Amino acid sequence: MTAIGETPAEVGKARVRKEDARLITGQTNWTDNITLPGLAHVAFLRSPHAHARITRVDVSEARNAPGVFAAFTGQDVKDEQGSLPCAWPVSEDMILPDHPAMAVDTVRYGGEIVAAVVARDRYAAADAIELIDVDYEELEPVLDMREAIKPGAVKVHAEGNKSYTWELANGDLGAAFNDAPIVLDRVYRQQRLIPAAMEPRSVVCAPVGDEYTMWSATQVPHILRLMLAMVTGIPEQSLRVIAPDVGGGFGSKLQVTAEEVLALLLAKRLGRPVKWTESRSEGNVAVHHGRDQIQHIRLAADADGRIRGLDVDLLADMGAYLMLVTPGVPILGAFMFNAIYKMDAYRFNCTGVFTTKTPTDAYRGAGRPEATYAIEHIMDDLAAHLGVDPLEIRERNWIKHEEFPYDTIAGLTYDSGNYEAATARARELFNYEGLRKEQSERISASSPVRLGVGVSTYTEMCGLAPSRVLGSLSYGAGGWEHASVRMLATGKVEVVTGSSAHGQGHETAWSQIVADQLGVAFEDVRVLHGDTQVSPKGLDTYGSRSLTVGGTALVLACGKVREKAKAIAAHMLEVSPEDLEWTGGRWAVRGDPDQGKNLAEITLATFAAHDLPDGVEPSLDSDATYDPDNFSFPHGTHLCAVDVDTETGRVKIRSYVAVDDIGHVINPLIVDGQVHGGLAQGIAQALYEEAAYDDSGNLVTASLADYLIPSAADLPSFVTDRTETPSTGNPLGVKGVGEAGTIASTPAVVNAIIDALRPFGVTDVEMPCTPERVWRAINEAKGGAR
Amino acid sequence: MRISVTVDGVRYDDDVEPRLLLVHYLREHAGRTGTPIGCDTSNCGACTIALNGRSVKSCSVLAVQADGADITTIQGLANGELHPMQRAFHEEHALQCGYCTPGMIMAATDLLKDNPDPTEEQVREGLEGNLCRCTGYQNIVKAVLKAAQGVKA
Q: Using a CB-CB distance cutoff of 8 angstroms, which residues of chain B are in contact with residue A506?
């Protein structure tokens, strides 16, 4: 790390957040709050069928309804709407079907848009939607991935139901499995999930001449602007995209949506500003879903439990269409199935399958939670097979701390890590031995409430991403990030980041970094983001990239400011620049620290520009664009204890310890918050949530009454702690923390449940582990009916 | 129908459709956009306000039902300085994206009216009707317990 001053004052401090001032007082600028003169409201009619041909759409009555300005069908917009973008064609022969924003002749999932109304207010628009008449010719839905890829299956798209097959293989898998003393063969199911950010999506689009401003509840204003230009043909420079306050994303707002494209086209058609805000029930069917994989995993091991090889076959449900990064999500998992373990051979094969369901795409963790779940589950199965402790089997296989940097079997280089330290700390906080003892006692006493201990020693890849790596994976863009630092005449600092926050606390954490880098007060830094006019360059927020990539760009930009200031400070102090050193947050004469200038003084002199060195421009403002060389690899050990009532199937989390190693910490308050929220989402996958479809392809969890987001009463308090092994890949030594909790916790919880039930012969419980499923698993293992 | 309501200390007289939801009235007629909408089935609680001093989900009340009522939203909670619950949410980092926060703060404030000295479990049970997707509730619970201490002291 660049040594700045003697002691970093701000980095590492548990600063309360700057963002809170507006959020706790209701002065927030959500997209749905925006109102403009003449603003019209858009409502969409969505398909009630999973799969059908549209034979007629009649909007004439809607068009004539009171307060209605216009109504449109797919036929009306088909020449302008283009195809919604997929930026990640993972293979050359990938089937990438046309994806109309508004369906023209066929609907392929319940919730697809078939017509739009633009009206005076949202009530008039909703009323007019009821007046639209659509005739459908129903087709058979395609709901089961395994059935979908069989010959003769009903086709979602004419080109077939198999979008792509992608493979990665290293080492001699045949040799690894041949004569292996232990081969475990398992199939795990990743259920479909709904990201359900608390703020429903909303978009406002205003035309000014032939230029357009769009406000959208998006994670990716920069990507959205670029893609809107490419889809609609409106020149990029005529589009401005603003992500105002955004109420959570978790990947669901890492998208270029039909509604955004249509809002732009309707604003253009009508020449007036339009707004669309979704209802939750609309969002549950129309916002992309997450996960949904069938994982076939085989593990070969020596008699002592040393892993020889791992063979993974995935079926990944794409849903009805490929959206922004749909096909790439399971591919990210390819690099993570091997996790923290050494092995001789590895094969990963993924087939992307079309079904008549809502498209899937990134959801918190994107590919890594799926991989981590499968490997951590099978590691527990291996431990059970050998009758050794799950932590012991992991230790026999994991990369030792002295072996870093380590080239993994999946082709990545893990720069740093210390699995021993994190595990030791977690064991201690958890009272591992004590709980194991209690577990045995309950088994001996044939207690109806069993204790289970679940282990998850995860790693993940963060800091998306080195552009060269993305290129090698056929991703359509790079992975750099941009920052600029503007020195104001009064000595205050404006920082512009290309990474657009939606709850992560950038305004606070970035201020802490800049305060240390420039020797200014935390309060004197203002962080700007999320507006392509204010922040013209950026690749936005996802994949735990903001700090590792965007934070590094910021450090580099601050370094340039300091260097520019150095020449001017030398001139002011009438010394040579070589005689200056940056110390205590200012440029001072080496050996004479009383003689120095801070950045406020230098900035004012630069602004006045009355007496600058020859040839020096009167500005300290600096930009930096940073492209990482490598990913970062947070890791940690999570331990979960559950009580399982074997008579009712009810699972109660008794204690949960998370020890994460995310490298250096900028703000521990924010980090703990990220971990808590991540744990909640991972636990929700293990215990509560599932996007379920009926046999006709209707989403039966279309409201929050049916889709069970856990409440405070459904979750325990967590014990969190950290070990600190800095990343060597960036000057801050940071790794990223946005997804760690989610990635680690799902297997910790499910492993705990299975651990409690292994004495009954239970080896798996499908997620979510509802009381009914747990009870059935016990009953079935006992030889009872399902 | 003609209604007269006081919102955050200001009286509004308006003609409204009988079907207009109170939350839409607050946001679109009274301009009090601090109260957001998170669902359409009254599960999430983001739109929680105080109606005549008791918390309600304003998506499940019609504007006409609020005729004559005194309403406090998140925007009227601070009285010159932050309400102890707002301060506790800030100090304990009980919010991330902040979308559930107005409803959560309003519900928590009402919770303490009923039970000024709740246990952790009572706070968790008491806030069951308000969903948060960011925080895992840990710091929300901490903040409510802290605010309870502050109110007592």
A: none
